[in-house]
């Protein structure tokens, strides 16, 4: 599932967090919510997975997409 298809299924608080903290490691609650929307699927277009430090982040492509959404809503 592509990230733009996931977006409308996320809670408004998760979407707000992603816009306000774009590019930052994801909190466990948002990771769980994204994975619940995707049925546990992790698409390499948006999912980097845990880093060596144990932090999960979105790809640059997903971060750029969220920035575009943020700018359009602003």
Sheet with the most strands? 2 strands, antiparallel
State mean pLDDT (0 to 100 scale): 91
Strands, total number: 2
- The rough form would be described as globular
Summarize the amount of helix as a percent range: 40-55%
**First-last Cα distance:** 26 Å
- Whole-angstrom Rg: 11 Å
Order of helices and strands: HHHEEH
Beta-strand content estimate: 5-15%
- Our count of helices gives 4
Helix-strand category: mainly alpha
Q: Which regions contain 5 or more consecutive residues with pLDDT less than 50?
A: none
Strand order of the largest sheet: 1-2
Number of domains: 1
Q: Your description of this structure?
A:
The chain is mostly helical and 74 residues long. The protein has one domain. The protein has four helices and two strands. Strands 1-2 form a two-stranded antiparallel sheet. The model has no long low-confidence stretch (mean pLDDT 91).
Please sum up the structure shown.
This protein has 74 residues and is mainly alpha-helical. Helix content is 51%, strand content 9%. The longest helix is centred in the C-terminal third of the chain and has 14 residues, at 60-73.
Show the helix and strand layout.
Layout: H1 3-6, H2 12-20, H3 28-38, E1 47-50, E2 56-58, H4 60-73
Sum up the structure in keywords:
single chain, 74 residues, mainly alpha, two-stranded antiparallel ribbon, 4 helices
């Amino acid at each position: 599932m592509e990230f733009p298809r996931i977006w409308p299924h996320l809670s408004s608080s998760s979407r707000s967090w992603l816009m306000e903290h774009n590019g930052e490691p994801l909190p466990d609650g948002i990771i769980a919510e994204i994975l619940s929307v995707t049925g546990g699927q992790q698409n390499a277009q948006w999912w980097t997975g845990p880093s060596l430090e144990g932090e999960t982040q979105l790809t640059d492509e997903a971060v750029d997409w969220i920035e575009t959404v943020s700018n359009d809503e602003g």
